[in-house]
Amino acid sequence: MQRQDxxxxxxxxxxxxxxxxxxxxxxxxxLPDAILGGIDGCVTTFAVVSGAFGAGFSATVxxxxxxxxxxxxxxxxxxxxxxxxxxxxxxVDGVRDDEHRHIEVVPEGEREEIRQIFRRKGFEGETLxxxxxxxxxxxxxxxxxxxxxxxxxxxxxxxxxxxxxVTFTAFLVIGAVPLLPYALPGLSITRQFLASxxxxxxxxxxxxxxxxxxxxxxxxxxGLRTLMMGGAAAGLAFLTGHLAQAxxxxxx
Length: 252
Fold this sequence. Notes:
The structure is a single chain. The chain has 252 residues and is an all-alpha fold. The chain has one domain. 80% of the residues lie in helices and 0% in strands. It contains ten helices and no strands. It has helices spanning 2-12, 15-23, 31-55, 59-105, 107-119, 125-136, 139-149, 160-176, 189-215, 219-248. The relative contact order is 0.16. It is found in: Endomembrane system.
């Protein structure tokens, strides 16, 4: 097994394999959007279900409230993510324009910034000067290097629309799962809630597992951690609904 791993690593680090891999889009670029939308969607709808069950509402009320929150919160979250990514991209564009202007006005100062950045990485003497000359020979490379190294900005993959769509889709798909038992006739309210509880727990666990496969984390631990966080939010909603019913007489 160890020999196979070494052979696969060597094959993936041949020049043609490296060129092919670097041309491809960054893996998992929109995964955070999907994870955020999926977890928040599942928490939102199951929190509504838990609160409704704790308050003694009927299955119809729980389903209506769940669907309303699913659509409204999903859209709100997608818009918020869209605006956040758009603001980030506008910030990057603004800093890029500033760097172009700085190169026009104080080119030697900008060259010195490149020099000091790469000196901190261990380059010295003629090697350092060749690096500086090579980078500064291409204006776009120069500017992009400053964005990454001086400002620590991500310049690739900033698509507000794509991020919003991924977030909204994950929110709707995952968030609808805890509502499915409430759309099935013939089940008691208790069985509907327990079925919704099981499905929500499964979704939380699967999201955590899927995240671990991309980011190379322990599968079971990641799934369990996500399950515990989602369960805590659902438990808080159930407790709130139960207290509201006891204190204010809210319920059926």
